[in-house]
């Protein structure tokens, strides 16, 4: 399992060397885009709008737009130093709270925590402490140059870390349009709705739920493979790499569009008989 982050977690004077691993994966089926005419894959290039030229990665800098068309350029070395400075810090559990106190809207992504070679005992101690207390830990961690608020909790026999949004990242419900105000509910309708909920209430079993759309799409792809498979074109349009080649191509295009010159008529002189 790929290691996303390596560091340590501490609570009080207990320090646990750990590794972070993504606990979930995206199962979306990725579809490529082809040119309808020749079935060549469509590519996307980074183009400078001012120069109208393709830009290489080494020619790109990062900047913050603090007002319209006004930027502060951020040096890559400064960003790297800032990232390392924060990543090297141990993740400290700041508080312990009840899981039920956090609304699911705050949760973002889940990671498995595994102990490093010297951290098994401390890892087990934190796991048992969380199990018996019924609490979860609140911590901060830097992942991919972003400081994340996170919770540490027990899942089955492992510790997991779930990144959560900061309060200012969750939009206000007041901004949601067309939410009806409090209205009187007909008692009979409410009674019927509660009966329906009661009839559909069961124990949560995640294995019961499947992605029907993804399964149907996979079946469709398998059917199409037998009757409708195409090979992507490997044609590559020649790209001039210097001014001479560009001028040659332009001249050839110009010559191709020229109309042939009309043939001159020759007049023959009649010989005297």
Automatic annotation (TrEMBL):
Regions of compositional bias (Basic residues) in chain numbering: 259-273
Lineage: superkingdom: Bacteria
Molecular function terms from GO: double-stranded DNA binding
Signal peptide limits: none
Example GO BP: double-strand break repair via nonhomologous end joining
Residue ranges occupied by any Ku domain in the UniProt entry: 52-181
Protein family per UniProt: Belongs to the prokaryotic Ku family.
Quaternary data: Homodimer. Interacts with LigD.
Protein name in UniProt: Non-homologous end joining protein Ku
Organism: Lysinibacillus irui
Gene it is expressed from: ku
């Amino acid at each position: 399992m790929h290691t996303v982050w390596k560091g340590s977690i501490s609570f009080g004077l207990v320090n646990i060397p750990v590794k972070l691993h993504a606990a979930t994966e995206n199962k979306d089926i990725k579809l490529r885009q082809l040119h309808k005419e020749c079935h060549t894959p469509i590519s996307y290039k980074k183009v400078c709008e001012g120069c109208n030229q393709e830009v290489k990665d080494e020619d790109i800098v990062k900047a913050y737009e603090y007002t319209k068309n006004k930027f502060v350029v951020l040096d890559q070395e400064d960003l790297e130093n800032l990232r390392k400075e924060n990543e090297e810090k141990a993740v400290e559990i700041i508080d312990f709270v009840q899981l039920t106190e956090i609304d699911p809207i705050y949760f973002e992504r889940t990671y498995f925590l595994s102990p490093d070679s010297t951290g098994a005992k401390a890892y087990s101690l934190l796991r048992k402490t969380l199990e018996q207390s019924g609490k979860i830990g609140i911590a901060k961690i830097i992942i991919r140059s972003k400081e994340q608020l996170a919770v540490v909790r027990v899942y089955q026999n492992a510790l997991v870390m779930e990144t959560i949004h900061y309060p200012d990242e969750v939009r206000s419900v007041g901004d949601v349009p067309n939410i009806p105000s409090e209205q009187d509910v007909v008692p009979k309708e409410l009674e019927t709705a509660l009966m329906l909920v009661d009839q559909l209430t069961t124990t949560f079993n995640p294995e019961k739920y499947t992605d029907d759309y993804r399964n149907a799409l996979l079946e469709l792809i398998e059917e199409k493979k037998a009757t409708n498979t195409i090979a992507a074109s490997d044609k590559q349009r020649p790209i001039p790499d210097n001014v001479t080649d560009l001028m040659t191509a332009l001249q050839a295009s110009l010559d191709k569009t020229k109309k042939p010159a009309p043939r001159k008529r020759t007049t023959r002189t009649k010989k005297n008989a």
